[in-house]
């Protein structure tokens, strides 16, 4: 026991000795959380558009004004003819061109019907669709305001309540996701690298012939990162709350248990990587290629899992971050108790066990 | 020149010798592209809707039928007023709960007006908004039909109508993979280029072979160039593989000039690899290099405009994004591939990336000291 403590102390000293590593360990999570909370927003704001007004009458000017004062759009250019549209799109700054047909106001008055054409740059299909929806909504709203006193019979008014996130803040999505990403990187990658480092430097053999048991070596290597990761997790939750107003509606103890379980899972994954990788270089590369993008894309961090093709939904089951994000969202935002997330907890525990068992086997092999 | 050639020879031999890295460099990007491009879709495909129908009238049944007929919704219908809808929302089994109150049809006929309550799980604000806008237009549609049939007219028209028709250029069927495939490819090329070149140099430091190189007559720029060129080549090979896959698997159209794309990518890689080298020059261990590059990469990727539009970011972030090489490259690859933009359309991006590359490269050369 005393040997183990001494070993852990040594590991801590390794980390604390280097101020650069310390800044990286604590600075990166804070900077990233702040950046993501402020910067990553899926809502549309100030999208650059161009307008081709072939009519230029009172109505089209009113609609143009309404579009531009909505906050969604920013006028980049007024066009004179259809030929300019392709050229302006190729420069890549304009997302949408709104085309008013000739004699727009007259037609609306005389025939009761006029046409607006929205040409969207669908090289970004999602934004294109959103923008054309917004444009349509603003135009229809203009018309509705004009006939505000006109009586519509048999009107059904849907009223919506946005649950768990009334003001539709993006941070509610990104704080749990960022936590998942940062914790897995720090825990899995740092441990795998420190263990492989001893191998590469040749100091692992010295450790192996020392009276330390092999599981003591692993525990000693992992403990500092466990503690640092817990501190990081607490920082993220506190900052998320203070800066972005992301609440902790459920039990704090349950939340911390989920976090610690996930850190253990990430640490065991790191140990597993370290038993496979021969050099720090391959440990890093495996970690970054296998963990970074898949964690971002397959865990439900940015893209909802329900929308993916079935094969990928199945694949997302093996992403540790998926279960963590589900559990954290449920506890933090919905305020549920352990009864609602037993499945996620069980899966994370199972994964941890499997990783540890495989690593034990591999690690023993190396001793022979 | 001869020295550079020998150095390059050495670097290539080292890379080729290290066979364990080959699958990581070439197979992993391809697998990732195949998988991840499909993962990334924001379009709504299936939303679980729970309808609590307490009215059980013709009108309410029509509404439920209309919802059921829509491919975006998976409808579960219950009639029990005491049904615990909150529980379903908490468990995540329902995304939307629609309450049709008692006497829905009667009130609509009598009062000319009735409201419907919708509850949407809004943790993911983006999907919540999409779901709500689909729902809203569906209900409006249903409302129009109902009105027309009750009033006995084929179509009910307001006094004036503006028809907004949308046309989607460059991707008329709104295929999301056309957007994601080039984007993911840029990320993979960046990961390979920047990361490999960054770690490679510091490795010589850590193993101690750097000192041996330092005492040779090799010039600084020769050394740095020799460290960079092999990974530039590898990154361009990965780009070619990726484009081929995008073409074969996702049917990605290629409207631009392929040479323009390679030219831009080379300039882009100069900047990112320059940054990678700079990081490794100022670091002592692989671990530090790894963490610093991870820090930059993650920020670069998330701010590149691939996942969220750059225009929506706060002003200071948009300004800051001009220091992000991925911001330029995302724009470039999408415009060249899908719209066929040429050099002159994107000259601002070209010179920005070139400037970035020159600055990074000079910084790396300047900070690299041949003394230990």
Characteristics:
heterodimer, A: 368 residues, alpha/beta, 4-stranded mixed sheet, 67% helix, B: 372 residues, 14 helices
What low-confidence regions of chain A span 5 or more consecutive residues with pLDDT below 50? none
Distance between the termini of chain B: 25 Å
- What's the helix-strand series of chain A? HHEHEHEHEHEHHHHHHHH
String of helices and strands of chain B: HHEHEHEHEHEHHHHHHHH
Low-pLDDT parts of chain B are none
Shape of chain A: elongated
Strand order of the largest sheet of chain A: 2-1-3-4
Characterise this structure:
The complex is a heterodimer of chains A (368) and B (372). With 368 residues, chain A is α/β, with parallel strands linked by helices. Chain A has 14 helices and 5 strands. Chain A has helices at residues 2-17, 19-39, 58-68, 83-90, 104-111, 125-146, 171-201, 203-209, 214-244, 252-276, 280-298, 310-316, 320-334, 342-367, and strands at 47-53, 73-79, 96-100, 113-121, 155-163. Chain A has a 4-stranded mixed beta sheet, with helices on both faces. In chain A, strand 1, helix 3 and strand 2 form a beta-alpha-beta unit. In chain A, helix 2 (19-39) packs antiparallel against helix 7. The mean pLDDT of chain A is 84. Chain B has helices at 2-17, 21-39, 58-68, 85-91, 104-111, 125-151, 176-207, 209-214, 220-250, 258-282, 286-302, 315-320, 325-339, 347-367, and strands spanning 47-53, 73-78, 96-100, 113-121, 161-169. In chain B, helix 3 (58-68) links the parallel strand 1 (47-53) and strand 2. Chain B starts with a helix and ends in a 5-residue tail after the last helix. Chain B has a 4-stranded mixed beta sheet. Chain B is 65% helix and 10% strand. Chains A and B meet through helix 2, helix 4, strand 4, helix 6 and strand 5 of A and helix 2, helix 4, strand 4, helix 6 and strand 5 of B. Strand 4 (113-121) of chain A pairs parallel with strand 5 of chain B, so a sheet runs across the interface.
């Amino acid at each position: 026991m005393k040997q183990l403590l001494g070993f852990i102390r040594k590991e801590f000293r390794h980390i604390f000795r280097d101020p650069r590593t310390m800044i990286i360990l604590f600075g990166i999570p804070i900077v990233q959380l702040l950046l993501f909370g402020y910067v990553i927003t899926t809502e549309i704001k100030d999208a650059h558009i161009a307008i081709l007004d072939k009519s230029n009458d009172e109505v089209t000017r009113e609609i143009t004004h309404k579009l531009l004062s909505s906050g969604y759009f920013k006028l980049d250019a007024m066009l004179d003819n259809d030929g300019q549209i392709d050229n302006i799109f190729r420069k890549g700054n304009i997302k949408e061109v709104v085309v008013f047909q000739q004699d727009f106001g007259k037609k609306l008055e005389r025939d009761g019907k006029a046409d607006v054409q929205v040409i969207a740059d669908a090289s970004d299909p999602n934004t294109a669709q959103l923008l054309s929806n917004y444009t349509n909504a603003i135009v229809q709203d203009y018309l509705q305001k004009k006939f505000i006193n006109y009586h519509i019979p048999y009107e059904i008014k849907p009223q919506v309540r946005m649950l768990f996130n009334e003001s539709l803040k993006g941070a509610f999505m990104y704080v749990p996701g960022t936590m998942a990403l940062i914790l897995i990187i720090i825990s899995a990658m740092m441990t795998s690298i420190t263990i492989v480092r001893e191998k590469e430097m040749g100091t692992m053999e010295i450790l192996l012939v020392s009276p330390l048991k092999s599981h003591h070596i692993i525990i000693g290597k992992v403990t500092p990162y466990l503690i640092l990761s817990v501190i990081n997790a607490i920082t993220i939750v506190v900052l998320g709350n203070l800066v972005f107003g992301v609440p902790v509606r459920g039990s704090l103890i349950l939340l911390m248990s989920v976090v610690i379980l996930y850190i253990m899972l990430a640490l065991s994954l790191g140990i597993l990587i370290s038993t496979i990788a021969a050099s720090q270089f391959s440990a890093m590369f495996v970690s970054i290629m296998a963990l970074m993008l898949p964690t971002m894309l397959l865990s439900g961090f940015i893209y909802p899992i329900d929308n993916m093709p079935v094969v990928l939904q199945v694949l997302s089951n093996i992403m540790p971050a998926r279960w963590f994000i589900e559990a954290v969202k449920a506890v933090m935002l919905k305020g549920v108790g352990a009864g609602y997330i037993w499945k996620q907890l069980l899966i994370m525990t199972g994964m941890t066990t499997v990783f540890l068992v495989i690593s034990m086997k591999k690690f023993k092999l190396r001793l022979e | 020149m001869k020295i550079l050639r020998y150095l390059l020879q050495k670097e290539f031999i080292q890379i080729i010798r290290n066979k364990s890295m080959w699958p990581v460099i070439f197979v992993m990007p391809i697998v990732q592209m195949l998988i991840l491009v499909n993962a990334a879709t924001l379009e709504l495909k299936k939303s679980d809707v729970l309808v609590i129908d307490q009215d059980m009238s013709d009108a309410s049944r029509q509404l439920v039928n209309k919802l059921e007929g829509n491919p975006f919704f998976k409808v579960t219908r219950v009639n029990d007023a005491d049904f615990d809808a909150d529980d379903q929302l908490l468990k995540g089994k329902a995304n939307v709960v629609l309450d049709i109150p008692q006497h829905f049809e009667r009130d609509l006929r009598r009062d000319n007006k009735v409201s419907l309550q919708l509850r949407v799980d809004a943790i993911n604000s983006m999907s919540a908004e999409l779901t709500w806008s689909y729902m809203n237009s569906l209900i409006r549609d249903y409302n129009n039909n109902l009105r027309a049939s009750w009033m006995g007219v084929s179509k009910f028209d307001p006094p004036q109508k503006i028809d907004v028709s949308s046309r989607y250029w460059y991707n008329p069927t709104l295929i999301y993979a056309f957007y994601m495939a080039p984007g993911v490819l840029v990320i993979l090329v960046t990961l390979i280029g920047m990361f490999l070149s960054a770690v490679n140099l510091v490795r010589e430091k850590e193993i101690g072979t750097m000192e041996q190189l330092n005492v040779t007559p090799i010039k600084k720029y020769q050394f740095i160039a020799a460290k960079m060129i092999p990974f530039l080549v590898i990154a361009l090979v990965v780009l070619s593989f990726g484009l081929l896959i995008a073409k074969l698997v996702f049917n990605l159209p290629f409207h631009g000039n392929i040479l323009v794309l390679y030219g831009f990518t080379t300039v882009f890689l100069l900047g990112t690899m320059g940054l990678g080298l700079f990081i490794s020059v100022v670091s002592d261990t692989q671990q530090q290099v790894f963490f610093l590059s991870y820090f930059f990469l993650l920020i670069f990727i998330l701010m590149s405009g691939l996942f969220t539009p750059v225009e929506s970011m706060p002003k200071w972030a948009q300004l800051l994004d001009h220091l992000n090489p991925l911001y330029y490259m995302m724009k470039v690859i999408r415009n060249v591939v899908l719209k066929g933009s040429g050099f002159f359309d994107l000259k601002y991006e070209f010179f920005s990336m070139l400037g970035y590359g020159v600055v990074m490269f000079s910084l790396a050369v300047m900070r690299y000291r041949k003394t230990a």
